[in-house]
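Collaborator request, handled under Task 6.
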Amino acid sequence: MANIVAIVGRPNVGKSTFFNRITESRKAIMDNMSGVTRDRHYGFAEWTGRNFTLIDTGGYVTDSEDVFEEAIRNQVELAIEEADVVLFMVDIMTGVTDLDKEFANVLRKARKDKPV
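Structure tokens returned to the collaborator:
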């Protein structure tokens, strides 16, 4: 097992902040503006004695025709395929949104055989 964990979710839920904390780095750029993370960022981490690769992804927006959001969706889908485990993040302050629910359905279909 390659031990790859992908962090996914809608824009601005804290994916890059979480990535930086777990990898003890500042590789992922953080901003309040949506769409800052567009590519996948890889980092190495150790948690309770287990080493793994963490993938930071951009915010997933379903059904958008925006060229950047479409490219971000493609990068997120690649990370989902590559990962052994997918960590689906939501913003606890905002609560679960309709976009979160739509993306959860995407994950259910894409990850039938792997944990989310």
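The cover message to the collaborator said: "The chain has one domain: 4-110. The domain at 4-110 is CATH 3.40.50.300 (Rossmann fold). Please let us know whether this matches your experimental observations."
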